[in-house]
């Protein structure tokens, strides 16, 4: 499943994969599920989206200065992609980034997306530093050699229901992404 958004985006939002009952059902990543409710609500509050919800692929949602995509292109069993799925999908993400010429920062929704962004960096021919920069909520890595990375806990129910991720925390990440993107 391809990503979507503003082709002139400076901010890339990278998730794990389409949800089986969300993006996989609706045909648009983060659309029609609770993670998407959290994500698009925050994007609306921080000026990246024209509306706070996304329920179908033709619901009028427009993103401004942001592009949303996933590291894995299909819904993996138990939401746990295999290394083969991850590696098979990498060229699709590389191609997608190839037409997003204005990108400055990647918001990585979870550790899997953080790792995928580092793999995208390597696929772009840019060395991944050793030790690898660690993922964390609001972790920031930018050595000037590629896009900056900004970590964010994934807006999954296991994070939002437990309070590990709150709306103000998510909004702060997107406000920071906007500032980092210039």
Helix content: 25-40%
Structural class: alpha/beta
Order of SSEs: EEHHEHEHEEHH
Percentage of residues in DSSP E strands = 5-15%
Strand order of the largest sheet: 1-3-2-4-6-5
Mean pLDDT: 88
Total of DSSP H or I helical runs spanning 4+ residues: 6
Number of strand segments: 6
What's the CATH class, please? Answer: Alpha Beta
Principal-axes shape call? globular
Give the quaternary arrangement of the chains.
single chain
Main beta sheet strand tally, sense and closure: 6 strands, mixed
What fold name goes in the CATH topology slot?
Uracil-DNA Glycosylase, subunit E
Which stretches are poorly predicted, pLDDT < 50 over at least 5 residues?
none
Architecture, CATH level 2? Answer: 3-Layer(aba) Sandwich
Note down, in words, how this protein is organized.
Helices cover about 35% and strands about 15% of the residues. The protein is an alpha/beta fold and about 180 residues long. The chain has a 6-stranded mixed sheet, sandwiched between helices. β5 and β6 form a beta hairpin. The model has no long low-confidence stretch (mean pLDDT about 90).
